[in-house]
Structures are given as C-alpha cells and as structure tokens.
C-alpha cells in the first residue's frame, strides 16, 4: 500500500506575505490570526530528517505552502512534492491564511495517493514507525478518547472549532454507534475517497460558515 505524508508550512517572517495577510485580516476577535500562529521556529529540517530516518517507506512528501520555500529544502528530491495553495484550492478562496480551509481541501492535491497522513508542522516522528501504525487492511488506525471541552476562562480558536464540529456531528450521527469511528489525533491518517463527500456535506450543513472557503481563521 502506498502512503503519502502531507505537511503545511508558512514563513511568517516573509514581508510580502505579511503585507498580503494585512490586506485581508481586518479586525480579529482573538489571537487566532496573531503573528505567533504563523511563526517559523526553524524546526522543519528536523521534521524531514525524522521522516527520512523513521519512515523511509513513505512514498512521497507533499509540502504545502503559499509559494515560499525554506532555504534548506532540496526541491529536486524525487520524494518531495512542493504544493502551492493555487495548485489545489478553489480560486475564490485565494489567498487564504486559514489552516482550516487548507486542511479541508488536502484531498484535492494533485498526485496524492488514496492513503495519506497529515502532519501539523509541530508534530514529529521520534522513533521508527511502520505503515501499520497508520493503516491496516486499507483502513485508518484510530483510537478513542472522551473528555469535556471547558468554555471557561480564556477561550481560544480550537475550543470554538471543537464545539462547532461536535454540534454538526451530534446533529447528524448517533454517538453510541459512531463513537468508535471518529477520533482526534495530532497526525491524521486519512483516505481520499470519502473526503469529497464529507466536504460537500459540511458545505450543506454549514452554508453560512463553510470553513473550506474562508481566507482567515474564524470562530464561526
């Protein structure tokens, strides 16, 4: 089974990118679009080295950016696919600064294999890992966990996103029968085939706040 890795990156210190973001940002309600959310800590070389050492079986790495590339990266490497937002996102959403919009369109990346693992850029492999850690018999490996979401004190963007997601899920799925099928992970093993249908359903359910076509992160 071929398995690809997908990772997002942004150079928050890029002056041209900062100017373009400022044109669209306007007023924000919280820190969801603050500079610290887009800061590059210089850790991506370690991410790539970890994949090279601990998961050499990965077929291809799709490195998703708005267009800029870190100086250390060898774009000629046969396992690397540099993907620009314009390569897979709908034109009407560009430019986008929302990871939510990007994540909901990852399955549209040209050349992406049916089975892929999406990494946040702050999630690293730290020991050897096999393909079966992510997929078995063609299905994603998952785990279940249940904990309350506390909307007290300083409420951040992720709490709002979690509540919005749960509202949609609970309105359309029975918890007792579905709880073992839907989980949260820092990396996400995903199959492309169901994604298009999920995005279409989300668009129908959330016509006033479709995350797949938003330029900036929003609590709604």
The pLDDT mean sits at 79
Helix content: 25-40%
Number of strands: 7
- Radius of gyration, rounded? 18 Å
Number of separate helices = 6
pLDDT < 50 stretches:
202-209
Please summarize the sheet with the most strands.
Answer: 5 strands, mixed
Distance between the first and last residues' Cα: 38 Å
- Percent strand: 5-15%
Shape: globular
Give a written overview of the molecule:
With 220 residues, this protein is α/β, with parallel strands linked by helices. The chain is built from 6 helices and 7 strands, in the order βααββαβββααβα. It has helices spanning 15-25, 44-54, 99-103, 157-172, 175-178, 195-205; strands spanning 3-8, 61-65, 80-84, 115-119, 135-136, 139-140, 187-191. The strands form 2 sheets. It has a 5-stranded mixed beta sheet with strand order 3-2-1-4-7, with no helix packed on it. A hairpin with a 2-residue loop joins strand 5 (135-136) and strand 6. The radius of gyration is 18 Å and the shape is globular.
């Amino acid at each position: 089974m071929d398995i690809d890795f997908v990772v997002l990156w942004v150079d928050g210190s890029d002056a041209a990118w900062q100017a373009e973001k400022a044109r669209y940002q306007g007023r924000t309600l919280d820190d969801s679009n603050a500079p610290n959310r887009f800061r590059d800590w210089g850790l991506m070389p370690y991410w790539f080295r970890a994949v090279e050492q601990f998961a050499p079986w990965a077929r291809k790495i799709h490195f998703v950016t708005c267009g800029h590339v870190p100086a250390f990266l060898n774009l000629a490497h046969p396992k690397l696919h540099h993907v620009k937002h314009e390569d897979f996102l709908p034109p009407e959403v560009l430019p986008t600064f929302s990871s939510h919009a990007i994540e909901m369109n990852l399955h549209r990346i040209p050349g992406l294999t049916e089975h892929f693992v999406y990494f946040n850029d702050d999630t690293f492999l730290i020991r050897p890992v096999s393909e079966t850690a992510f997929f078995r018999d063609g299905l994603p490996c998952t785990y279940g966990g249940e904990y309350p979401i506390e909307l007290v004190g300083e409420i951040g963007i992720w709490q709002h996103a979690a509540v919005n997601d749960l509202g949609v899920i609970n309105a359309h799925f029975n918890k007792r029968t579905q709880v073992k099928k839907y989980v949260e992970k820092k990396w996400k093993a995903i199959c492309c085939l169901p994604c298009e249908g999920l995005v279409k359903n989300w668009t129908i359910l959330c016509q006033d706040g479709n995350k797949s076509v938003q330029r900036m992160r929003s609590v709604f």
